[in-house]
Amino acid sequence: MSDDNSYKGFGSEDLDELYLYEAYREGIHRLHSSEYLFDFKTGKYHAFSVARTTPGFWAADGKIVEAVPIFLSKFDKNEPSYSIVKMHLDEEWLKENLADGHLEEFDYSRKIEGVNHWFRMSLTAVRLQPGEEVRFALITTTDVTDLISEREKMSEELTITNARLKREMSILRAFKNIYFISFSIDINSELVHIIEAPDDYKDFVEKINGDLRQTIQMMSQNLVAQEYAENYAKFLEPKDIDKRLPNSNLLTYDFFTKTGMWCRCHLIVASKDRNNKIELAICAVQNITEEKEKEIRLKQAAEANGKKQW
């Protein structure tokens, strides 16, 4: 005959609590590879869950085990992780370094069937009642191989990125050493982005939100000598840039400045769209005063020699 009170002595609330406890234990088992409770009073380890990667233990809740010797036997003593794990599992170290609620964590690795695995060990002391001495230390391990692999991958990618950025910065510094003014031109939006320029030029371009027309006008008024200003503006005109650069990626224009300096403006194609239309160009201004003056002197000398022959 069946008795409805099969669980004699247990009320529904007790059963609910037992069910919640089982659910909690199942969840904890899934989070951690292994769990141990060290009892400072007895000096023994109680195993609550044991990873399949640690043969020699039995996964029975609360089983008293000689955890440290068995656990350390799974390591190669020459591995760097061996000594750090041994230190953290030492009873004296636990007593001296763990306080109630304090969490100590570190990562270690060991080979399992020839493959390197990474684990995170967490240690914390537990006081059950206020005022009493800390009696237990909870020690758990969690497999973090995937996490470490991802971290190493990210670190490698970051190293590659940093090397690329360093290389690009070197190129940019070299670029700035040659061109004292440089800016990119978005052909479709007619916006400029300053790469290198005097501070007052940068401030002006920022104030006008990178408007190309106003930038050209400002440079024509402040930098370019009056007799070259009109052609300079035409040189930077974006509407017919494809016609002026049909089969080339470079166009140059020499002009004289209001401060008595000769400059060469380079218009360089940076990118094109799917229809082979220029969408981004670089304008770079170079000081060629020394080169230009030498060229003028040679030209004048040649003209003088020609007159003497007559």
Put the structure in a nutshell.
With 310 residues, the protein is an alpha+beta fold.
Question: Can you lay out the helices and strands and say which pair or pack?
Answer:
Layout: H1 12-31, E1 34-39, E2 44-49, E3 63-65, H2 67-72, H3 80-88, H4 91-97, E4 103-112, E5 115-126, E6 136-143, H5 145-178, E7 179-186, E8 191-196, H6 199-207, H7 212-222, H8 226-235, H9 241-244, E9 250-256, E10 262-272, E11 278-287, H10 289-309
Antiparallel strand pairs: 1-2, 1-6, 2-3, 4-5, 5-6, 7-8, 7-11, 9-10, 10-11
Helix pairs in contact: 7-8
Q: Beta-sheet strand percentage?
A: 25-35%
Helix percent reads 40-55%
Largest sheet: 6 strands, antiparallel
Count of beta strands = 11
Structural category is alpha+beta
N-to-C span:
140 Å
- Structural shape: elongated
